[in-house]
TrEMBL record:
Its cofactor is (R)-lipoate. GO terms for molecular function: acyltransferase activity. InterPro entries: 2-oxoacid_DH_actylTfrase, Biotin_lipoyl, CAT-like_dom_sf, E2/Pdx1, E3-bd_dom_sf, PSBD, Single_hybrid_motif. Its EC number is 2.3.1.-. It comes from Croceicoccus marinus. This is Dihydrolipoamide acetyltransferase component of pyruvate dehydrogenase complex. SUPFAM superfamilies: CoA-dependent acyltransferases, Peripheral subunit-binding domain of 2-oxo acid dehydrogenase complex, Single hybrid motif. PROSITE patterns: BIOTINYL_LIPOYL, PSBD. Residues 137-174, 195-232 form the Peripheral subunit-binding (PSBD) domain. Keywords: Acyltransferase, Lipoyl, Plasmid, Transferase. One of its GO terms (biological process) is pyruvate decarboxylation to acetyl-CoA. One of its GO terms (cellular component) is pyruvate dehydrogenase complex.
Length: 478
Protein backbone atom coordinates (compact mmCIF):
# COMPACT_ATOMS: atom_id res chain seq x y z
CA UNK A 1 0.00 0.00 0.00
CA UNK A 2 1.40 3.40 -1.02
CA UNK A 3 1.70 6.33 1.32
CA UNK A 4 -1.71 8.01 1.21
CA UNK A 5 -2.07 11.59 2.44
CA UNK A 6 -5.21 13.60 3.16
CA UNK A 7 -5.37 17.20 1.95
CA UNK A 8 -7.84 19.06 4.16
CA UNK A 9 -9.21 22.59 4.41
CA UNK A 10 -6.41 24.58 6.08
CA UNK A 11 -6.94 27.06 8.91
CA UNK A 12 -5.48 30.55 8.62
CA UNK A 13 -6.13 32.70 11.66
CA UNK A 14 -8.34 32.35 14.73
CA UNK A 15 -11.54 33.54 13.07
CA UNK A 16 -11.46 31.25 10.02
CA UNK A 17 -14.03 28.45 10.17
CA UNK A 18 -14.56 27.57 6.50
CA UNK A 19 -13.26 28.12 2.98
CA UNK A 20 -14.04 27.42 -0.66
CA UNK A 21 -11.87 25.72 -3.28
CA UNK A 22 -11.70 28.39 -5.99
CA UNK A 23 -9.52 26.46 -8.45
CA UNK A 24 -7.49 23.26 -8.65
CA UNK A 25 -4.22 23.56 -10.57
CA UNK A 26 -3.91 19.78 -11.07
CA UNK A 27 -6.37 17.10 -12.18
CA UNK A 28 -6.75 13.56 -10.86
CA UNK A 29 -3.76 11.51 -11.95
CA UNK A 30 -1.42 14.50 -12.25
CA UNK A 31 1.81 14.64 -10.25
CA UNK A 32 3.27 17.73 -8.61
CA UNK A 33 6.50 18.70 -6.89
CA UNK A 34 7.18 20.43 -3.62
CA UNK A 35 6.70 24.19 -3.90
CA UNK A 36 4.28 24.03 -6.85
CA UNK A 37 0.90 25.76 -6.60
CA UNK A 38 -1.77 23.13 -5.87
CA UNK A 39 -4.95 25.18 -5.63
CA UNK A 40 -6.55 28.49 -4.71
CA UNK A 41 -8.73 28.67 -1.61
CA UNK A 42 -11.08 31.57 -0.85
CA UNK A 43 -11.50 32.53 2.80
CA UNK A 44 -13.59 35.52 3.87
CA UNK A 45 -12.37 38.34 1.59
CA UNK A 46 -9.14 36.87 0.24
CA UNK A 47 -7.91 34.14 -2.07
CA UNK A 48 -4.91 32.20 -0.80
CA UNK A 49 -2.46 30.21 -2.89
CA UNK A 50 -1.67 26.76 -1.45
CA UNK A 51 1.76 25.37 -2.31
CA UNK A 52 2.75 21.70 -2.10
CA UNK A 53 4.80 20.68 0.94
CA UNK A 54 5.98 17.43 -0.69
CA UNK A 55 6.09 15.54 -4.01
CA UNK A 56 2.92 13.51 -4.71
CA UNK A 57 0.20 12.48 -7.17
CA UNK A 58 -3.42 13.64 -7.09
CA UNK A 59 -5.45 10.44 -6.69
CA UNK A 60 -8.86 11.81 -5.77
CA UNK A 61 -10.42 15.29 -5.77
CA UNK A 62 -13.24 15.14 -3.22
CA UNK A 63 -14.38 18.79 -3.42
CA UNK A 64 -14.55 20.28 -6.92
CA UNK A 65 -13.85 23.88 -7.99
CA UNK A 66 -16.35 26.49 -6.89
CA UNK A 67 -18.34 24.19 -4.61
CA UNK A 68 -19.98 25.09 -1.34
CA UNK A 69 -17.86 26.36 1.54
CA UNK A 70 -16.22 23.55 3.49
CA UNK A 71 -15.34 23.70 7.20
CA UNK A 72 -11.75 23.73 8.42
CA UNK A 73 -10.43 20.14 8.51
CA UNK A 74 -12.79 18.83 5.80
CA UNK A 75 -11.27 16.42 3.26
CA UNK A 76 -10.62 18.18 -0.05
CA UNK A 77 -8.40 15.71 -1.90
CA UNK A 78 -6.28 12.57 -1.51
CA UNK A 79 -2.61 12.41 -2.54
CA UNK A 80 -0.16 9.51 -2.65
CA UNK A 81 3.10 8.42 -4.27
CA UNK A 82 1.22 6.86 -7.17
CA UNK A 83 1.37 3.27 -5.98
CA UNK A 84 -1.93 2.89 -4.08
CA UNK A 85 -4.80 1.05 -5.75
CA UNK A 86 -8.20 2.59 -6.44
CA UNK A 87 -9.72 0.33 -3.77
CA UNK A 88 -7.27 1.66 -1.19
CA UNK A 89 -8.07 5.25 -2.14
CA UNK A 90 -11.84 4.52 -1.92
CA UNK A 91 -11.39 2.97 1.49
CA UNK A 92 -9.29 5.91 2.68
CA UNK A 93 -11.98 8.40 1.61
CA UNK A 94 -14.80 6.40 3.16
CA UNK A 95 -12.99 5.96 6.49
CA UNK A 96 -11.57 9.47 6.73
CA UNK A 97 -12.25 11.22 10.03
CA UNK A 98 -11.58 14.96 10.57
CA UNK A 99 -9.05 15.95 13.21
CA UNK A 100 -10.40 16.00 16.76
CA UNK A 101 -11.65 19.35 17.93
CA UNK A 102 -11.89 20.77 14.40
CA UNK A 103 -14.83 22.48 12.75
CA UNK A 104 -15.31 19.60 10.32
CA UNK A 105 -15.45 17.09 13.16
CA UNK A 106 -18.23 19.04 14.82
CA UNK A 107 -20.27 19.12 11.62
CA UNK A 108 -19.76 15.38 11.07
CA UNK A 109 -21.02 14.59 14.58
CA UNK A 110 -24.18 16.60 13.92
CA UNK A 111 -24.75 14.77 10.64
CA UNK A 112 -24.24 11.41 12.35
CA UNK A 113 -26.75 12.34 15.04
CA UNK A 114 -29.58 12.92 12.55
CA UNK A 115 -29.87 9.30 11.32
CA UNK A 116 -29.99 8.12 14.94
CA UNK A 117 -32.89 10.45 15.69
CA UNK A 118 -34.70 9.28 12.57
CA UNK A 119 -34.20 5.66 13.59
CA UNK A 120 -35.96 6.26 16.89
CA UNK A 121 -38.96 7.81 15.13
CA UNK A 122 -39.52 4.92 12.68
CA UNK A 123 -37.44 1.77 12.34
CA UNK A 124 -39.87 0.42 9.74
CA UNK A 125 -38.60 2.89 7.11
CA UNK A 126 -35.10 1.40 7.13
CA UNK A 127 -34.32 -0.37 3.79
CA UNK A 128 -33.80 -4.10 3.83
CA UNK A 129 -30.17 -5.21 3.42
CA UNK A 130 -29.31 -7.45 0.46
CA UNK A 131 -26.35 -9.49 -0.77
CA UNK A 132 -24.83 -8.47 -4.09
CA UNK A 133 -23.25 -11.15 -6.28
CA UNK A 134 -21.84 -9.57 -9.42
CA UNK A 135 -18.86 -9.67 -11.77
CA UNK A 136 -19.03 -5.93 -12.40
CA UNK A 137 -16.11 -3.89 -11.03
CA UNK A 138 -17.22 -2.20 -7.80
CA UNK A 139 -15.25 -0.76 -4.89
CA UNK A 140 -15.55 -2.47 -1.47
CA UNK A 141 -17.10 0.60 0.14
CA UNK A 142 -19.58 0.99 -2.71
CA UNK A 143 -20.58 -2.71 -2.36
CA UNK A 144 -21.07 -2.39 1.40
CA UNK A 145 -23.23 0.72 0.98
CA UNK A 146 -25.33 -0.83 -1.79
CA UNK A 147 -25.91 -4.03 0.24
CA UNK A 148 -26.77 -2.07 3.41
CA UNK A 149 -29.24 0.20 1.60
CA UNK A 150 -30.68 -2.46 -0.72
CA UNK A 151 -29.59 -0.71 -3.92
CA UNK A 152 -29.85 -2.57 -7.23
CA UNK A 153 -26.57 -1.84 -9.02
CA UNK A 154 -27.79 -3.15 -12.39
CA UNK A 155 -28.86 0.33 -13.51
CA UNK A 156 -25.86 2.17 -12.07
CA UNK A 157 -23.34 3.39 -14.63
CA UNK A 158 -19.91 3.34 -13.01
CA UNK A 159 -17.91 6.55 -13.19
CA UNK A 160 -14.63 5.02 -12.05
CA UNK A 161 -11.77 3.75 -14.15
CA UNK A 162 -12.96 1.04 -16.57
CA UNK A 163 -16.62 1.58 -15.61
CA UNK A 164 -15.97 0.76 -11.96
CA UNK A 165 -18.85 1.60 -9.58
CA UNK A 166 -17.63 3.98 -6.88
CA UNK A 167 -18.97 4.95 -3.47
CA UNK A 168 -20.22 8.23 -4.96
CA UNK A 169 -22.13 6.37 -7.70
CA UNK A 170 -24.11 4.43 -5.09
CA UNK A 171 -24.78 7.61 -3.12
CA UNK A 172 -26.16 9.24 -6.27
CA UNK A 173 -28.38 6.23 -6.91
CA UNK A 174 -29.76 6.56 -3.38
CA UNK A 175 -30.66 10.19 -4.03
CA UNK A 176 -32.50 9.23 -7.21
CA UNK A 177 -32.75 11.14 -10.48
CA UNK A 178 -33.35 14.88 -10.29
CA UNK A 179 -36.52 15.03 -12.33
CA UNK A 180 -37.85 18.40 -13.49
CA UNK A 181 -40.80 19.87 -11.64
CA UNK A 182 -42.76 21.52 -14.42
CA UNK A 183 -45.53 23.98 -13.70
CA UNK A 184 -48.11 25.48 -16.01
CA UNK A 185 -47.27 28.55 -18.06
CA UNK A 186 -49.42 31.24 -19.61
CA UNK A 187 -50.14 30.27 -23.20
CA UNK A 188 -50.71 33.24 -25.48
CA UNK A 189 -52.84 32.89 -28.63
CA UNK A 190 -50.86 31.66 -31.64
CA UNK A 191 -47.83 30.62 -29.53
CA UNK A 192 -48.84 27.20 -28.24
CA UNK A 193 -45.69 25.60 -29.67
CA UNK A 194 -43.18 28.04 -28.12
CA UNK A 195 -41.27 26.72 -25.10
CA UNK A 196 -40.69 29.93 -23.14
CA UNK A 197 -40.64 31.22 -19.59
CA UNK A 198 -43.64 33.23 -18.33
CA UNK A 199 -41.49 36.36 -18.15
CA UNK A 200 -40.31 35.87 -21.74
CA UNK A 201 -43.95 35.55 -22.85
CA UNK A 202 -44.96 38.78 -21.09
CA UNK A 203 -42.09 40.75 -22.63
CA UNK A 204 -42.86 39.30 -26.06
CA UNK A 205 -46.53 40.30 -25.71
CA UNK A 206 -45.61 43.87 -24.71
CA UNK A 207 -43.29 44.33 -27.70
CA UNK A 208 -45.31 42.31 -30.21
CA UNK A 209 -42.64 39.66 -30.77
CA UNK A 210 -43.57 36.26 -32.24
CA UNK A 211 -41.96 33.64 -29.99
CA UNK A 212 -42.11 31.03 -32.75
CA UNK A 213 -39.28 32.90 -34.45
CA UNK A 214 -37.07 33.13 -31.35
CA UNK A 215 -34.30 30.60 -30.65
CA UNK A 216 -34.05 29.66 -26.97
CA UNK A 217 -30.68 29.49 -25.21
CA UNK A 218 -32.00 28.14 -21.91
CA UNK A 219 -32.17 24.59 -20.66
CA UNK A 220 -33.59 22.22 -23.32
CA UNK A 221 -33.92 25.15 -25.72
CA UNK A 222 -36.24 27.15 -23.47
CA UNK A 223 -36.72 30.80 -24.50
CA UNK A 224 -35.60 33.11 -21.70
CA UNK A 225 -35.91 36.81 -20.97
CA UNK A 226 -32.59 37.65 -22.61
CA UNK A 227 -33.57 35.81 -25.80
CA UNK A 228 -36.66 38.01 -26.17
CA UNK A 229 -34.86 41.21 -25.17
CA UNK A 230 -32.34 40.53 -27.93
CA UNK A 231 -35.22 40.89 -30.41
CA UNK A 232 -36.44 44.19 -28.94
CA UNK A 233 -35.39 47.19 -31.10
CA UNK A 234 -32.50 49.06 -29.46
CA UNK A 235 -34.31 52.40 -29.47
CA UNK A 236 -37.39 51.07 -27.67
CA UNK A 237 -38.34 53.47 -24.91
CA UNK A 238 -35.89 56.17 -26.09
CA UNK A 239 -37.71 57.52 -29.13
CA UNK A 240 -40.08 60.43 -28.48
CA UNK A 241 -43.74 59.30 -28.61
CA UNK A 242 -46.02 60.80 -31.20
CA UNK A 243 -47.95 63.87 -30.00
CA UNK A 244 -51.10 62.80 -28.18
CA UNK A 245 -50.05 59.15 -28.05
CA UNK A 246 -50.97 57.39 -24.78
CA UNK A 247 -48.19 56.36 -22.41
CA UNK A 248 -47.37 52.65 -22.71
CA UNK A 249 -45.25 51.16 -19.89
CA UNK A 250 -42.48 48.71 -20.81
CA UNK A 251 -41.13 45.77 -18.87
CA UNK A 252 -39.37 46.79 -15.65
CA UNK A 253 -38.19 43.45 -14.33
CA UNK A 254 -35.31 43.35 -11.82
CA UNK A 255 -31.93 41.88 -12.66
CA UNK A 256 -31.54 39.52 -9.70
CA UNK A 257 -27.97 38.94 -8.54
CA UNK A 258 -27.57 36.67 -5.50
CA UNK A 259 -24.82 37.39 -2.99
CA UNK A 260 -21.44 36.01 -4.01
CA UNK A 261 -19.20 34.44 -1.37
CA UNK A 262 -17.43 37.69 -0.52
CA UNK A 263 -20.67 39.68 -0.21
CA UNK A 264 -22.10 36.98 2.08
CA UNK A 265 -19.11 37.31 4.41
CA UNK A 266 -19.25 41.12 4.37
CA UNK A 267 -22.99 41.11 5.12
CA UNK A 268 -22.57 38.61 7.95
CA UNK A 269 -19.65 40.44 9.59
CA UNK A 270 -21.15 43.94 9.32
CA UNK A 271 -24.54 42.81 10.57
CA UNK A 272 -22.93 41.16 13.59
CA UNK A 273 -20.73 44.23 14.19
CA UNK A 274 -23.66 46.64 14.13
CA UNK A 275 -25.81 44.43 16.38
CA UNK A 276 -23.15 43.40 18.90
CA UNK A 277 -20.92 46.49 19.15
CA UNK A 278 -22.25 49.56 21.03
CA UNK A 279 -21.14 52.30 18.62
CA UNK A 280 -20.81 55.95 19.52
CA UNK A 281 -19.57 58.71 17.25
CA UNK A 282 -17.20 61.66 17.66
CA UNK A 283 -17.00 64.33 14.93
CA UNK A 284 -14.34 66.90 14.15
CA UNK A 285 -13.20 69.11 11.24
CA UNK A 286 -9.54 69.64 10.34
CA UNK A 287 -7.98 72.61 8.54
CA UNK A 288 -5.92 70.93 5.81
CA UNK A 289 -4.27 73.97 4.16
CA UNK A 290 -0.90 73.44 5.87
CA UNK A 291 -1.06 69.71 5.15
CA UNK A 292 -1.68 70.31 1.45
CA UNK A 293 1.33 72.65 1.27
CA UNK A 294 3.59 70.15 3.07
CA UNK A 295 2.33 67.34 0.83
CA UNK A 296 3.38 69.25 -2.28
CA UNK A 297 6.86 69.91 -0.90
CA UNK A 298 7.34 66.36 0.44
CA UNK A 299 6.36 64.80 -2.88
CA UNK A 300 8.92 66.93 -4.72
CA UNK A 301 11.73 66.31 -2.20
CA UNK A 302 11.10 62.57 -1.77
CA UNK A 303 10.13 61.95 -5.39
CA UNK A 304 6.89 60.25 -4.38
CA UNK A 305 3.18 60.72 -5.04
CA UNK A 306 1.73 60.50 -1.55
CA UNK A 307 -2.01 61.22 -1.46
CA UNK A 308 -3.91 63.17 1.17
CA UNK A 309 -5.18 59.82 2.44
CA UNK A 310 -1.58 58.64 2.92
CA UNK A 311 -0.99 61.67 5.17
CA UNK A 312 -4.20 60.90 7.08
CA UNK A 313 -2.98 57.31 7.59
CA UNK A 314 0.38 58.63 8.80
CA UNK A 315 -1.18 61.15 11.20
CA UNK A 316 -3.63 58.53 12.52
CA UNK A 317 -0.80 56.06 13.11
CA UNK A 318 1.31 58.57 15.06
CA UNK A 319 -1.73 59.64 17.09
CA UNK A 320 -2.52 55.99 17.88
CA UNK A 321 1.06 55.42 19.07
CA UNK A 322 0.45 58.21 21.62
CA UNK A 323 -3.00 56.91 22.58
CA UNK A 324 -2.65 53.17 23.03
CA UNK A 325 -6.09 53.05 24.70
CA UNK A 326 -7.55 53.63 21.21
CA UNK A 327 -5.06 51.41 19.35
CA UNK A 328 -6.79 48.24 20.54
CA UNK A 329 -8.56 45.02 19.62
CA UNK A 330 -11.36 43.49 21.67
CA UNK A 331 -11.31 39.68 22.12
CA UNK A 332 -14.13 38.45 24.33
CA UNK A 333 -13.58 40.15 27.68
CA UNK A 334 -9.95 41.04 26.94
CA UNK A 335 -8.65 44.33 25.51
CA UNK A 336 -5.43 43.94 23.52
CA UNK A 337 -3.48 47.22 23.41
CA UNK A 338 -0.70 47.52 20.80
CA UNK A 339 2.47 49.67 20.84
CA UNK A 340 2.46 50.16 17.04
CA UNK A 341 -0.36 51.04 14.65
CA UNK A 342 -1.38 48.54 11.95
CA UNK A 343 -3.74 50.65 9.85
CA UNK A 344 -6.41 48.91 7.76
CA UNK A 345 -7.23 50.94 4.65
CA UNK A 346 -10.73 50.45 3.22
CA UNK A 347 -10.48 49.67 -0.52
CA UNK A 348 -13.28 49.02 -3.04
CA UNK A 349 -12.23 45.94 -5.04
CA UNK A 350 -13.98 43.77 -7.66
CA UNK A 351 -14.74 41.34 -4.81
CA UNK A 352 -16.30 44.02 -2.60
CA UNK A 353 -14.98 46.11 0.27
CA UNK A 354 -11.63 44.86 1.60
CA UNK A 355 -9.33 46.27 4.27
CA UNK A 356 -5.64 45.45 3.63
CA UNK A 357 -3.21 46.55 6.33
CA UNK A 358 -0.27 48.99 6.36
CA UNK A 359 1.90 47.42 9.08
CA UNK A 360 3.48 49.65 11.76
CA UNK A 361 2.56 52.81 9.88
CA UNK A 362 3.67 54.91 12.88
CA UNK A 363 7.30 53.91 12.11
CA UNK A 364 7.13 54.66 8.36
CA UNK A 365 8.11 57.70 6.31
CA UNK A 366 5.40 59.17 4.10
CA UNK A 367 7.00 57.76 0.93
CA UNK A 368 7.02 54.29 2.52
CA UNK A 369 3.34 54.59 3.45
CA UNK A 370 2.48 55.77 -0.07
CA UNK A 371 4.36 52.83 -1.62
CA UNK A 372 2.80 50.27 0.75
CA UNK A 373 -0.72 51.64 0.20
CA UNK A 374 -0.34 51.74 -3.58
CA UNK A 375 0.86 48.13 -3.60
CA UNK A 376 -2.07 46.95 -1.47
CA UNK A 377 -4.60 48.80 -3.64
CA UNK A 378 -3.14 47.25 -6.80
CA UNK A 379 -3.27 43.76 -5.25
CA UNK A 380 -6.87 44.32 -4.14
CA UNK A 381 -7.99 45.38 -7.63
CA UNK A 382 -6.25 42.34 -9.16
CA UNK A 383 -7.70 39.95 -6.56
CA UNK A 384 -4.23 38.97 -5.26
CA UNK A 385 -4.55 39.90 -1.59
CA UNK A 386 -3.22 37.17 0.67
CA UNK A 387 -4.04 36.27 4.26
CA UNK A 388 -0.96 38.12 5.49
CA UNK A 389 -2.31 41.32 3.89
CA UNK A 390 -5.61 41.12 5.79
CA UNK A 391 -4.93 39.45 9.14
CA UNK A 392 -5.02 41.73 12.17
CA UNK A 393 -5.18 45.50 12.05
CA UNK A 394 -5.61 47.78 15.06
CA UNK A 395 -7.50 50.68 13.41
CA UNK A 396 -9.23 51.42 10.09
CA UNK A 397 -9.30 54.52 7.87
CA UNK A 398 -12.24 54.71 5.43
CA UNK A 399 -12.11 57.68 3.04
CA UNK A 400 -15.07 58.49 0.79
CA UNK A 401 -14.09 62.09 0.27
CA UNK A 402 -12.97 61.44 -3.30
CA UNK A 403 -16.60 60.58 -4.11
CA UNK A 404 -17.86 63.92 -2.82
CA UNK A 405 -19.39 62.49 0.39
CA UNK A 406 -19.60 65.25 3.02
CA UNK A 407 -19.51 62.91 6.03
CA UNK A 408 -20.67 59.46 7.07
CA UNK A 409 -20.68 57.02 9.99
CA UNK A 410 -18.59 53.87 9.40
CA UNK A 411 -19.24 50.47 10.99
CA UNK A 412 -16.38 49.21 13.15
CA UNK A 413 -14.30 46.39 11.69
CA UNK A 414 -14.08 43.76 14.51
CA UNK A 415 -12.06 42.97 16.52
CA UNK A 416 -10.77 46.55 16.20
CA UNK A 417 -12.03 49.19 18.59
CA UNK A 418 -12.46 52.17 16.25
CA UNK A 419 -12.69 53.33 12.63
CA UNK A 420 -12.14 56.81 11.14
CA UNK A 421 -14.55 57.98 8.42
CA UNK A 422 -13.13 60.77 6.22
CA UNK A 423 -15.39 63.05 4.18
CA UNK A 424 -14.74 65.41 1.26
CA UNK A 425 -12.51 68.47 1.69
CA UNK A 426 -14.31 71.74 1.03
CA UNK A 427 -13.56 75.46 1.21
CA UNK A 428 -15.35 77.07 4.15
CA UNK A 429 -15.45 80.51 5.66
CA UNK A 430 -13.78 80.27 9.09
CA UNK A 431 -12.31 82.59 11.71
CA UNK A 432 -8.51 82.69 11.88
CA UNK A 433 -6.28 83.33 14.91
CA UNK A 434 -6.62 87.10 14.48
CA UNK A 435 -10.40 86.90 14.44
CA UNK A 436 -10.68 87.60 10.74
CA UNK A 437 -12.93 85.71 8.33
CA UNK A 438 -10.92 83.66 5.85
CA UNK A 439 -11.51 80.68 3.59
CA UNK A 440 -9.88 77.38 4.60
CA UNK A 441 -9.85 73.79 3.28
CA UNK A 442 -11.73 71.78 5.91
CA UNK A 443 -11.92 67.96 6.08
CA UNK A 444 -14.76 66.47 8.19
CA UNK A 445 -13.97 63.31 10.15
CA UNK A 446 -16.11 60.95 12.22
CA UNK A 447 -14.62 58.47 14.67
CA UNK A 448 -16.80 55.38 15.31
CA UNK A 449 -15.87 53.91 18.69
CA UNK A 450 -16.61 50.62 20.47
CA UNK A 451 -17.85 51.84 23.87
CA UNK A 452 -17.01 48.49 25.48
CA UNK A 453 -13.28 49.09 24.99
CA UNK A 454 -12.83 52.85 24.53
CA UNK A 455 -14.28 55.66 26.62
CA UNK A 456 -15.52 58.93 25.14
CA UNK A 457 -12.69 60.97 26.68
CA UNK A 458 -10.05 58.63 25.21
CA UNK A 459 -11.59 58.93 21.73
CA UNK A 460 -11.82 62.72 22.03
CA UNK A 461 -8.17 63.04 23.11
CA UNK A 462 -7.10 60.90 20.17
CA UNK A 463 -9.01 63.14 17.75
CA UNK A 464 -7.44 66.27 19.25
CA UNK A 465 -3.96 64.81 18.72
CA UNK A 466 -4.89 63.81 15.15
CA UNK A 467 -6.18 67.33 14.46
CA UNK A 468 -2.98 68.90 15.86
CA UNK A 469 -0.74 66.67 13.72
CA UNK A 470 -2.69 67.42 10.55
CA UNK A 471 -2.91 71.18 11.13
CA UNK A 472 0.79 71.35 12.04
CA UNK A 473 2.12 68.64 9.68
CA UNK A 474 5.80 69.50 10.37
CA UNK A 475 5.33 67.38 13.52
CA UNK A 476 4.81 64.32 11.30
CA UNK A 477 8.46 64.53 10.25
CA UNK A 478 9.89 65.28 13.67
Amino acid sequence: MGKIRAFTMPKWGIEMTEGTVAEWKFAEGDSFSRGELICLIETAKITNEVEAEYDATVRRIVVADGGEAEPVGALLAVFDDGSASDEEIDAFVANFKPAQGGVAEGREKKQQAKPKEAAIEGESDKPKAITIDTNRPISPEARRLAEAEGVDIADIEGSGRGGRITFQDVQQALRGPAGPSLKGTTVLPGEDGAFASPLARRIAAIHGIDLNGVSGTGARGRISKKDVLAKVPQDTGSAAPAPGAPFVPVANEPDIQPFDKIRKVVAKRLTAAKQDIPHFYLRISVNADALLAVRKTANMVLGTKASVNDFIVMASAKALARHRDVNVQLHGEEIHSFPHADISVAVASPKGLVTPIVRQADRMRIDQIASATRGLIDKAKEGRLGYEDMDGGTFTVSNLGMFGIDNFDAIINPPQGAILAVGAAERRLVEDERGEAVFATMIPMTLSVDHRAIDGAAGAQFLQTLKTLMEDPEQLFA
